[in-house]
Structure formats: C-alpha cells, structure tokens
Amino acid sequence: GSRLLDVKNLKTWFYTFEGVAKAVNGVSYTLNKGESLGIVGESGCGKSVTASSVMRIVPEPPGKIVGGKIFFHGEDLVQLSQKEMRRIRGNRIAMIFQEPMTSLNPVFTIGNQIAEMFILHRGMSKKDGLDAAVEMLDRVQIPAPEKRVGEYPHQLSGGMRQRAMIAMALACDPELLIADEPTTALDVTVQAQILDLMNRLKDELDTAIQMITHDLGVISEMADRIVVMYAGRVVEEAETVELFQNSLHPYTRGLLHSIPILGSRSRGEQKKLSEIKGIVPSLYGLPVGCAFRERCSRAMKICGEQEPPLYGVSGNHAVRCWLHQDH
Ligand code: SF4
Ligand code: MG
C-alpha cells in the first residue's frame, strides 16, 4: 500500500527538575494506508508519547520534540504550527484514549459533540450534523441511536462511552486512527466487543490504525505489524504472525510469556504465565549499553558496553539485540 505515515528518528524529551527524560529517543516506523500497526511495551516505554508527538499534543513545556520528522502524506507534522495542526487533528488523524472522558465533554450531549465534528470540519449545519451523529452512533452499534444522541456521557455505560468516543473519532473519516489502550479499562467481554468493532470499522472505512497497548494479546488479532518499544527505543519490529512465531528479542519473548491465559473470565482472575522480572530503567539516566540488560537472562559482556543497533534479520523483521548481529 502507499505510505501514510513515516516517523523518522523521533526524539521527544521532557525537561524536568529531575533532569532530562528521553521518553522517545530515536524512534522510526512507518504506516501504510489502511494498515494496522501495534505499538507494544510496558508503561513508560514511550509508546503514548510517540502517539502524542504524532498528534502534536505533547505538553510543551516540559515536553519537546527535539529531533526527527513525522511525515504524514509527505508533510512533516513537526514543522506545522498548532493552527495548521487543527485542520489535521480530529479530521485526518483522530485519537481515542483509555478513558473516554479524556475526549468526551461531560456538559454536552453525545450528539452535540459528534455533530460539532461535522460542523467544524465539514461545514454542516447543526441539523445535518445531528443527523450524521445518529448515523455514527448506529455505525458503532449503539442501540436506539435517536434516543442516545440526546444523552450526556454520564448516562452511558463504560462500553457505550467507548463506542461514542470511537464514533466521534471516526466522524470525519480520518485516514489514521491512533488508539491508546482503548480497551484497558473495560472488562474482558466488553473489551472483546470493542476490538471486534474496531476491526470491522477498519475494514469498512479503510482507516489505518496505530494501536498502543501493553498487552500483546489485545492486538494479536488486530495488527498487521507490531513494533515493540523499550525505554524510548524500538527493540523489535515484525509482521504479527512472524513476531508471535519467531520473536527474537528477549524482551518480546518475555512479553509473549506474560499474555494472560485464554479463557480467564475477568481481569481479576487473569493469570499470567510469567512476568518479566525487574523494572524499566529510569529514563533520566539510561545505562550504557543495552537498556534491557539488567532484566535479561542472556546478557553478555558487550551488552554492558555498547547499545546494539537495530539489525534487519529478514524482510520486515528487525531486532535490537547483540544476539542477532550475525543474521
Ligand atoms: Fe539481552 Fe544483550 Fe540482547 Fe540486550 S543486547 S537483550 S542484554 S542479549
Ligand atoms: Mg500510556
């Protein structure tokens, strides 16, 4: 497919009293039209900051994009003013969050908020905007959309609010939808329904999706390709099937082993096969060498001396680990 997004050597740092946190430190990835990409890693790996950078919503200060480029249709978003970003954000690139109330305003009806997207970006009248809002609610399978359109966010269940947020995000038929842990706060059944919905919409609308999650299980059925991040860096990238069958980075293998066992009924009951021992290193003072080495059972001498480069091991598979330098 044709190239939609091309992130090149992105660096987004935070300047705080404790020092400089290099939250995103030289991240590159691409996304083609209609493709779905998973960005996976533990909390603090830089996956959310990467998304905020693409949306240009990094709080500045303390954050700042200090390097790199974010090409969207060949136009570098890093160079755009906030005014110019407003014609792209919500319109051509939309985002949904773990907590729907991040994007839904409690004092306006669901209908008015969705209609606002059509009024703002499509120049519709209020009445046409509201009709289009009913259609969107129907599209995300909210029952009785004519009634729901007049309700406030607090009148909806958590799962319905998530659907309403998706409806708002997709209102203007964006080319790229960024989803940041969209199902993490939901129970397992509702989580599966929302993922089904997103999968269906992706096929219907041909929207490219960048899905951010700490849970590889969540994106296994959704993503065409997966990027694994650790301590602000990409440590492995591969097509989804390849990553699941032939993961190479010790960190990715650890993540795969910590996917909840299928069939567990609720979040509380979810059992994990194993957790990756140890904690993510502080972004304020990353160690010399491989950032994963304190937690890695395969660490060698060189791992403490030099950071490994990202090795291309086959077609679309790349890994940042000294174990694979001979590929
Ligand atoms: Fe482990 Fe070394 Fe590979 Fe890092 S480079 S993941 S420490 S083997
Ligand atoms: Mg996050």
TrEMBL record:
Subcellular location per the Swiss-Prot or TrEMBL entry: Cell inner membrane
The UniProt record lists the keyword Nucleotide-binding: yes
Gene Ontology terms: cellular component: plasma membrane
Superkingdom: Bacteria
Subcellular location, principal: membrane
ABC transporter domain residues: 5-256
Residue stretches spanning the membrane: none
Alphabetical GO biological process terms: peptide transport
Keywords in alphabetical order: ATP-binding, Cell membrane, Membrane, Nucleotide-binding, Transport
GO MF entry, a single one: ATP hydrolysis activity
Annotated membrane topology: Peripheral membrane protein
PANTHER family tied to this protein: DIPEPTIDE TRANSPORT ATP-BINDING PROTEIN DPPD (PTHR43297:SF2), OLIGOPEPTIDE TRANSPORT ATP-BINDING PROTEIN APPD (PTHR43297)
Family statement drawn from the similarity comment of this UniProt entry: Belongs to the ABC transporter superfamily.
Protein name in the entry: ABC transporter ATP-binding protein
